[in-house]
Design goal:
Layout lengths: L1 E6 H13 L2 E2 L15 E7 L1 E6 L1 E2 L15 E2 L15 H4 L3 E6 L10 H10 L4 E6 L6 E5 L3
Antiparallel strand pairs: 1-8, 2-5, 3-4, 3-7, 4-6, 8-9
Helix pairs in contact: 1-3
């Protein structure tokens, strides 16, 4: 199993941006395509693997460059790191986008955004994506303690 770790404080910045944005990028997920666009974290694998806000206008590193989206790379999977993610190719091919709606229920929390906020308040350091030997992705929170 592969576990991807994303810095939770940075993920929260993306999530809060998406939640506050007046519009959202269209989804490529056929299961969500018929629904109105909604706030989400978008997980990409292309040059590295990273999360990005769905919010429009985008969260930019350079306000003068509309292509300078803030992204949060998985620890050890930054630009130029075409590491093998094993069976993850089955989810969406060599390069892909997967959506994590922030308004969807998550465990005992009313929404995924609430779970992220609670984990941050409790001092968790990582949003984790566990990639077991199946087409499933398990989302969790972790700490180095």
């Amino acid at each position: 199993m592969i576990t991807l770790k994303f810095a939770l404080t940075d993920v929260l910045t993306l999530a809060e941006h998406a939640a506050a944005a007046p519009e959202h990028a269209a989804t490529l997920d056929p299961d969500l395509a018929a629904q109105p666009s909604r706030p989400r974290l978008m997980w990409f694998k292309d040059d590295g693997t990273y999360l990005m806000s769905s919010g429009i206008p985008g969260l930019l590193t350079d306000p003068g460059d509309p292509e300078s989206n803030v992204v949060v790379y998985a620890h050890g999977y930054g630009p130029g790191s075409r590491q093998d993610l094993g069976h993850i190719e089955e989810i969406g091919g060599n390069d892909f986008i997967e959506d994590f709606p922030l308004d969807a229920p998550f465990g005992t929390h009313p929404t995924f955004l609430d779970a992220l906020r609670k984990a941050g308040a409790l001092g968790y350091q990582w949003l984790t994506l566990d990639l077991p030997d199946s087409r499933q992705v398990a989302i969790g929170m972790a700490s180095d303690r």
